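Researcher: Next entry in the queue.
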Amino acid sequence: MIEAVFKKKIVLVATVLAGLLVCNGVQKNESSLSVSPHIKAITSVEEFNAVFLSSGSRLLVFYLYADWCGPCRMVTPIIENVADAMNERADFFSIDIDKSPQITGIFNTNSIPHVALVSNQTVVSSLGGVHAEQEYIDAVQTFSDPQSRSEPDGQIIDGIRVITIDDDSAPLRLNVYRGEALRLIFGESEYDRTVSISGMGQFGSAKKGEELAISFTVRDVGVVPFEVTRVVNGESVTVQGGIVVSGFVAPEGNQFVNLFASEARELIADSAVVVFDVRTDHEYLGGHLENAVHIPLDQLEQRIGELSEYRDKPFLVYCRSGNRSVVASQILMRNGFHRLYHLRTGIRGWIAQGYELVQ
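Model: Structure for this entry, 359 residues:
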């Protein structure tokens, strides 16, 4: 039953229609994608599913565009060059959002041009808008070889990824997974300083000799820029950095399968699966999946021994929206639980389908 669910064709329910997608500076002009021989056009859900489900760890690059989009006409030749140069590292596909609006929702974007990188049925990175050719090449190089991907920085403590930054005087690149709660701790400095992570709505300041901590959750793949400004001899000196947010890809030897609510419901019919709820006590008491084992994420590391009797069984891990459950999955794998299924839309997706909860 588990294998059947794993192989079952995903039925895409588009949440974003082409009419909602926006493109700055657009004009209605007749123009079409001058297709590189290394870019295949996808025109149907069936075609997309066949590619999406059969790729395994092979990197897929999806380019969403429209003929009437001005910035798309700038990006198209760049993507063609990248596809020609990197076709041995990844497979490239184009999706015209006007001709295939039913496909666009899976990428959770409301603007074009948009480039999504997918591996193991997970969006591991994305670039929206217009970027330099080298940025696309760097992204393909990074995510096409699992051995070359940067491991996430810091460590998970009580369900939160804690990253300590001792030197903020040089540009920083931090690596994390989508859905993680982060706590960035900037060590003591000999200068007054401020930290701005505007994309997350986070700002902080500290005096000379003080630590500075900022906490937030990253919910989308991509790059979150931030700035550290120090006051040196009365002048402001700003250093820029970036938080690279990737989709979680299980380490070798582990199974991690994202499921929609309908697939998870079928999986639960197999009594071998352990349904595992990592929400808070209050959330759990408000309603949960039937027969769910419950340990809040912030207690999981301390209470992992309670799960020892289930070590050889597959787990279906869920939370409210699919964020905390990603962190829980990492903790489980680190402690010897190697067959995991993940409710990607969380219990919210379950409720949206009208499926039953128990109390």
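Model: The chain has three domains: 2-148, 155-246, 255-352.
Researcher: Noted, moving on.
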